[in-house]
Amino acid sequence: MKSLIQSPQLSFLMEAHNGLCAKIVEEAGFEAIWASGLSISATLGVRDSNEASWTQLLEILEFMSDATSISILLDGDTGYGNFNNIRRLIQKLEQRSSSICDCQAGMDQEAAKEAEGAGARVGAVSI
User: Fold this and answer.
1) Residue 48 falls in the annotated catalytic set
2) Using alpha carbons only, what angle is made at residue 57 by residues 54 and 59, rounded to the nearest 5 degrees?
């Protein structure tokens, strides 16, 4: 994922929200997958306002990662409550050695500073 992000070439990602969709994205030839918080929430039948927990998200990402060999860029929403939750999610992703990145696209500046101060990596990071 790091080389894809740093490349001067334009790359296209396709959204997926479960293992089957992830496999379709890979077979269609996309270089990586965008794991959207909105579509994952919709798949679970909940609103896109952190009603799905980070543990539910982790389970879905495991299925997506198991089904594919391409990288997954995760929509980290607003940190799933606070920096402790997003830090725990990142730790769990690292333990699984999957090709998943995390992006706190929705995390506000104050929460991002607080998370960085506590040792969490905020932004697009290679896991």
Assistant:
1) yes
2) 115
Check if the beta carbon of residue 25 is closer than 8 Å to that of residue 14: yes
Can you give 7-67 as a three-state secondary structure string?
CCCCCCEEECCCHHHHHHHHHCCCCEEEECHHHHHHHHCCCCCCCCCHHHHHHHHHHHHHH
- Name the catalytic one among 48, 66, 75, 77: 48
Query: How far is the C-alpha of 36 from the C-alpha of 6, rounded, in Å?
Result: 21
- Dist. CA 48–CA 68, nearest whole Å: 25
pTM: 0.74
Nearest one of 31, 65, 35, 61 to 48, comparing CA atoms? 35
Instruction: Give the integer Cα–Cα distance in Å for 77 and 86.
Output: 9
What are the structural domains, with CATH classification, of the chain?
2-126 (3.20.20.60)
Mind listing the pLDDT tens digit for each residue in 21-65?
A: 999 999 999 999 998 888 999 999 998 887 888 888 889 988 998
| Residue that wins the pLDDT comparison between 57 and 86 | 57
